[in-house]
Design goal:
The chain has about 290 residues and is mainly β. The chain folds into three domains: about 30 residues; about 180 residues, Jelly Rolls (Sandwich); about 50 residues, no CATH class. The chain is about 10% helix and about 40% strand. The chain is built from one helix and 20 strands. The strands form two sheets. The protein has an 18-stranded mixed β-sheet that branches. The chain has a two-stranded antiparallel ribbon with strand order 19-20. The longest helix is centred in the first third of the chain and has 33 residues. The model has no long low-confidence stretch (mean pLDDT about 85).
Length: about 290
């Protein structure tokens, strides 16, 4: 008599196990594809690179404090591109300019912040889009601002947003997002924005009170009451002081002086001087 052994059926059928493996593999494949797509998109369209930042000392000497908290005196030009959280301060007889430039376009100027006497500020960061087709913003972040600065923002050829943010020790903020010229003042009692040309927004420390400062106006934040007062800025007595209508001699066959300005040479003996209108770092100048 032959005995037959019954083979027990597996708890999980092989076809179900196979389908499970296929589905898990497909899910992993989709996840990898999604992460790769997001990474590639972020790299090409949303990633940023540091701006080139130079400190140019115009008068006296400027103190630079880095992460080691040791002040170093600079009397010429200093590259701050790779310096993190650099603090810049001037004394009663010194002045310097922070120049923010595009590294791969012959150092074209994006913005210039002139640090006047008895002024302190910290450079938290400065970045720009990695590629010309990127959608990320131009961002300049300044903190701990106390004193007075002049800001020039030059024109660009792209549609990316530009944001220059300035934060005072009291918590008041200033946002600048377009081409123009501005003068900022910060102390223990007030924060002031003079908008000569452009667009700026002044925020109180609680951020609930803010006000846009139109061109040709001055906004003053009274820190004790968080009140923002808007009035007309002082009139510049120099007509066309910014040389807005100057023509670049290198781009024009007939160089012209800016409107309401003249240049003459009464020298009869050699050598005879020459003048040349140019655009330098977004500013109209006359080179003698």
């Amino acid at each position: 008599m032959v005995e037959t052994l019954e083979i027990p059926e597996p708890r999980i059928k092989p076809e179900r196990l196979a389908w499970g493996v296929v589905l898990i593999a497909f899910a992993i494949f989709c996840t990898v594809c999604a992460l790769t797509t997001i990474g590639v998109y972020s790299f090409f369209f949303q990633s940023t690179v540091p701006m080139r930042v130079d400190l140019v000392v115009g008068v006296g000497s400027v103190a630079i404090t880095e992460s080691d908290l040791i002040p170093r005196v600079e009397r010429g030009v200093r590259d701050l591109t790779s310096v993190v959280n650099a603090s810049v301060s001037t004394d009663q007889q010194s002045q310097g300019t922070l120049s923010f430039r595009i590294p791969d376009e012959d150092g074209r100027l994006l913005a210039a912040v002139t640090v006047k006497r008895n002024t302190t500020l910290s450079l938290r960061g400065a970045s720009l889009p990695r590629f010309s087709w990127s959608t990320s913003d131009y961002i300049i972040d300044l903190r701990d601002f106390r004193g007075e600065v002049d800001i020039l923002v030059t024109e660009r050829n792209d549609d990316n947003h530009f944001v220059l943010s300035v934060l005072s020790p009291t918590g008041a903020q200033i946002h600048i997002d377009t081409t123009g010229q501005y003068t900022l003042t910060s102390n223990d009692t007030l924060v002031q924005v003079v908008n000569r040309r452009g667009r700026a927004i002044l925020f109180a420390p609680d951020l609930s009170t803010n006000r846009a400062i139109p061109a040709g106006n001055r906004g003053t934040l009274i820190l004790q009451t968080n009140e923002i007062i808007l009035d007309s800025a002082f009139t510049d007595l120099l007509v066309n002081a910014s040389f807005d209508t100057v023509y670049d001699a290198e781009a024009s066959e007939q160089p012209r002086l800016p409107e309401r300005w003249g240049c003459s040479n009464n020298q009869e003996d050699l050598p005879i001087g020459q003048w040349l209108p140019q655009i330098v770092d977004g500013r109209g100048v006359i080179r003698l």
